[in-house]
Design brief:
The complex is a heterodimer of chains A (189) and B (69). With 189 residues, chain A is mostly helical. Chain A is built from 9 helices and 2 strands. A two-stranded antiparallel sheet of chain A has the order 1-2. Chain B is rod-shaped, with a radius of gyration of 27 Å. Chain B starts with a helix and ends with a helix. The chains are: A mainly alpha (189), B mainly alpha (69).
């Protein structure tokens, strides 16, 4: 089997790296760990480049790899999901119309407090712009399941943000993530 | 073709008028209210997308190229 990358593979892989960083940051909540996760994902994608079908979505393919890598490493306790307080405090304030401004730091904290599968679904559909079908394929679950996760995630996030029920800083989101792992679809292979 | 096109446009306009007469003009589709946090979620994602690539990742991508040589 040839290990020579298809002509466009490297270019497409390079183009999705910023998106991989954004997805990873949302999943694990820490910039340094997210970039470690992206590095591992790139290495795995490169090693598996013969299995990438030209003409299909590089973003969906690599997101699947990243998601599976995240779960695998999380089970090994290498990528403990945690909230990067220092980084989040530097994030700009998001204007929120006539209401009080919504701090993106607050949103980050709320996101990390969501059950892992809902956070993942919201990141894919609500932030990453994937269709429900694509998100279901990436998450290895049924279409109805991903729709349910997105819906419940939206409702929970709205409650936390709009009613001010934000989790307190350093509230043990990490432990929550670990305990929620058992409900996620394990990576294949 | 131009004539047909104009004709079709007239038909469509007439049809629209008839329909409008039967159904008073209303905003059929209410504007979708996007909560602030929903756009903030996209912004949070986009903010990372627009960050400069860290050196470590740029070097890794360069290394992948050299691996082929």
């Amino acid at each position: 089997m040839s290990q020579t990358a298809p002509p466009d593979f490297k270019r497409e892989l390079t183009q999705v790296v910023p998106h991989l960083r954004a997805f990873a940051r949302g999943l694990c909540g820490r910039a340094d760990m997210a970039d470690d996760l992206v590095q591992e994902t790139l290495l795995r994608a490169w090693a598996a480049r013969d299995r990438f079908l030209s003409g299909t979505s590089m973003r969906a393919w690599t997101f699947t790899i990243l998601r599976n890598t995240y779960l695998t490493e999380l089970r090994r306790n290498r990528f403990r999901g945690d909230y990067d307080e220092a980084l989040a405090e530097r994030i700009l304030v998001e204007p929120a119309g006539q209401e009080a401004p919504l701090h993106l730091a607050d949103l980050s904290r709320a996101l990390m407090a969501l059950p892992a599968e809902r956070r993942e679904a919201l990141l894919l559909v609500g932030a990453g712009g994937f269709s429900y079908e694509e998100a279901a394929a990436i998450s290895g679950c049924a279409l109805g399941t991903i729709k349910s996760r997105v819906g419940r995630g939206r409702a929970q996030l709205a409650t936390m943000i709009e009613e001010g029920h934000l989790p307190r800083r350093h509230s043990g989101a990490t432990e929550d993530i670990i305990t929620q792992l058992g409900r996620l679809t394990p990576p294949k292979g | 073709m131009a004539v047909n096109s104009e004709h079709n446009q007239e038909d469509q306009a007439r049809d629209h008028t008839n329909t409008a007469a039967e159904h008073p003009i209303t905003t059929d589709t209410p504007p979708v209210e996007t909560p602030p946090w929903a756009s903030a979620l996209r912004d949070l994602y986009q903010q990372v997308v627009e960050e400069p690539l860290p050196d470590a990742l740029a070097e890794l991508l360069a290394r992948l190229d050299r691996e082929d040589e």
